[in-house]
Design a protein that fits this description.
The chain has 76 residues and is mostly helical. The chain has 3 helices and no strands. The chain has one domain (1-76).
């Protein structure tokens, strides 16, 4: 599941327009929101800068504390 179209925190589709060649010329939804740096710091280092967060995770909406670890385990 480690690909550019899935959120590294929860595994949901991240709705990134840049990751989809059909919509890449359009501005991504994330350009219009402020993402709390703490949300990014909560990701394990190996999952950072690989794919965009989904809108829910970018908003810091109630992810379980172990969600990134679960995503990493599922990739194996």
């Amino acid at each position: 599941m480690n690909d550019s179209q899935h959120c590294p925190a929860c595994g949901a589709l991240n709705q990134c327009t840049l990751a989809d060649p059909r919509t890449a010329p359009a501005a991504c939804w994330c350009y219009a929101v402020n993402i709390d740096p703490a949300v990014l710091k909560a990701l394990p280092t190996e999952l950072r800068d690989k794919a965009c967060l989904c809108p829910r995770c970018a908003a810091g909406a109630g992810l379980p504390e172990n969600a990134p670890a679960q995503v990493e385990a599922e990739k194996r």
